[in-house]
Here is the input.
Amino acid sequence: MAFVKDMLRMWAHSWKRFISIAMITLLGVAVLTGIYAGCRDAFRSTDRFFDAQGLHDVQVLSTAGLSNGDIAALRKVNGVAKVQAERSQEVTFDLDGRKSATMQEIGTNGIDQPYLQEGRMPKKAGEIAVTRKFIRDSGKHIGSRLTVTPESASSDTSDTSDTNGADGTNETNGTDEAPSFPTKLTIVGVVLDPQNLSNPDGYSAMTSFRSTATTDYTFFAPSDGVTGTLYTSATLLVKGAAAESTFDESYENTVKQVTDRIDGTVKTDRQKARRQELLDAGNKKIADARAEADKKFADAQSQIDANRQQFNQQVDQIVDMQASAAAAGAAANGANAGATTPQLDETTRETMRETIIAASPELTQAKQQLDQAQSQLNEQKASTEQTLKTKENELKTSIPQVRWYVQDRQSLGGFSALKSDLDSIQSLGNAFPIVFLLVAVMMSLTAMARMVEEDRSLIGTYVGLGYGRLAVASRYLLFALLACLIGGGLGLIAGFLGIPAFLLVVLQGMYVMPGLRLEYDWLYGSLGIALFVVGVLAATIYACVQEMRQTPAALMRPKAPRAGSRILLERIRPVWNRIGFLGKVTARNIFRFKSRLIMTVGGVAGCTALIVCGLAINDTVADLGIKQYRDIYQYDLMVVSDDSDASAMRTKVASDGRVTSSLDVRIESGDLTVAGSGDGDSGKAGSSGSESIQLVAVPEKHLSDLGEMVTLQPVSSGILGTSGVGKTGSLKLDDDGVIVAQSAASALGVKAGSKVRLTNGDGVQATAKVGAVNRNLIGSDVYVSETYYAKLFDSKDAKNTKNSKSSEDSEALTWNAMLAKLSGSDASQTDYAESLEEDSSVMKAVSCAHMADSFKFDLMGAVVALIVALAGGLALVVLFTLANTNVSERVREMATLKVLGFFDREVHHYVNREMMILTVMGVILGLPLGRLVGGMLTMALNMPSLYFEVEVKPLSYVIAAVATMAFALLVQLFVNPVLDRIDPISSLKSVE
Here is the structure.
């Protein structure tokens, strides 16, 4: 019992060490669990919301729309749980200018259901539900009315709007009609689109580089009032996918199995079948036109024949009359008294007809009219037949190849943005606790070593009395364990409540996540505490072993003072001789006690490094937009159009007179897959070894002009977040390989000379050689020459040949995009890009000036602020622990100084000067260490379409140094009263 009382008394006396260990554990556990818990809570709540609203796992789009036959084929795919055919239509309306919206039919099969936030769901024709963004921008409210105008259907849809259905048994009228929605609308509800969780009322980053919306708003309408048998898309739910977390790899693998099956025979067969349907519809139209023309020509010919017969009858009557008259005259003269009716041979009769017609102007005109009508009819028949034959010949080339696009959730801009944001923060949460753990172990070793050393004689007494070494060591092990458990428990509260609440507040400023709640993870929380318990106990065991390995007699004797020794500075006589007495004492105290030097400098360096690391990430993210859109992209404007509108787009831009120089290119969305990562049909976004890219084909005659629009700098992989960047202009695009963006190359481990698999916009795959890796921070551009593009995707040896272009389609590339340099200010360039998007020939216009100014990464900034704050708190605790340990080790020394006549302020200066010097040394070591750690962490981020080129501004180094020094000064305010309370008499009496 006395042993326990003494142990408790010892614990109470060491309350400062207890608080230090508890605080370090608290901070470490909070960092370890807090970021993880915040991201996990966001992941889980979003996954629950997606499951509740039935967010599709797979979406199928077609350039020719989808028919009932396509939907039936998708239902037969193994692994598909539900298929929902969807109809939509793009409309425009006036809202401070021309705005566009997508009229979306609310599915009846439970997929992609909008989440009601206010009002009610639409049920009748003409009723719609809108998003909160529209309510905010328009100022309208529930009950407001709106009139929209349907946009002209795209060329693909127009070509298919009057063609045969996919399944003649289901299409009674034999044609597919494009979807059509009511135009007189009434707002009855406000909803959240599950495909886009961006918060319109917050500081959403969705307006930056990841915005993928093609229209301004989405309106949701019921099936009532919607007409048309042609579907714009089909959404699918996969069996077993709902049981997996949508952000886990297991979910991606489950969905990929189904997308691979669709990409196989289903996609190919339905593309061929749909095109054949279009061809059959075209042939049927031509056949119907021929039959109708033949009927009209036959009717016209019958009319002409009837008129000619009537004309001939009239002429024959005249011929008969003249013949009868001649016969009558002859009879009167007795020449032929017996003849009553003259008999004329055909030759004589024809001669008389011609004579009669020639003698009569009326008959001559009538005959000419008949002949002219017959001639015109013959010409029309020949012309019509030639036109129909030409249409038959042109039909096959005029109807384009039908292409399917099979997409998963990664293609949803809102989903991928949320996932990449949370993944990046979670990667930081996995890295930072390592530094906290190392610092915690160092500080625990320092504190517990001093605690054991103070009880040296008592330990010897207990051991001499027969107490086991383990029982004696338990005094300190239980002390450290209790401090870790209390600190860890408080850390769990902060980690599962405080930090997640902060992160979720920031997240809710960017995304709307209904049903968000904080949850506790018993396993992860317990392992978090256990990790720090093991680390601190290991340090305590080491300190106990170091002391208890001696005999009880040696322990009960005072520890021999450290033998005097010279330090290196003493050997530099010119410097040493000019240092004062107290300066020499300070120098000896600093360098003679190596353990204290290492612990103090190491602890301060670690904390400074964490602050620099956090600021480095902030600086890196802040400069991404400027570097990409000001330095790498030298062009000011990128304009993209449909292939059919490419010429009109270039004419429009040229006629505006704003362009100073331009380069026509072809831009396609595709995939880049590491050649050895798999043998599937195509790489999927988000899967291992695959990256979504923007494939940019450059005309052969203008390869050298690419360097004027994009800064071409070869890069090579470095270490710890660094990369070697070559000279600007030293990289050239040629016909021997592609140039891959650094952001994609870094994520996939690709370098110059690697083999990769490219998928172009038509879904055709080919293996390409990487000629070089180009410096690129945002987006994943892959540049390819016109010749190499044709070699890759028109070659018979290319993979997936059954999807390759047919011989009649293997034509010159259509340059559907333009990179241009503009005159005028940044604001005028942004306005010009916005005005271009109003043009019907322009699909997308992007201003680099606008992108550079609007690029934001608010979530990363908030997390960096959190990390810097926690690092600052750790620095304060570390300095406080080291300062108190330093004082406790030197109580007799301080008492001696007071006996010698030192005033309190002089004692303060004597002790604090050493701590400040050690702090400065730690700061000097921590600044480059922070840059090093920052490079490692930015490498760990590895986000899709982003490469973090580590940037640390001089101001960040200054802030980190000043903050650490400020913490050191703050600690002095706590230490000085301790020095003042040292009693010289009692301190000198005690025997350590």
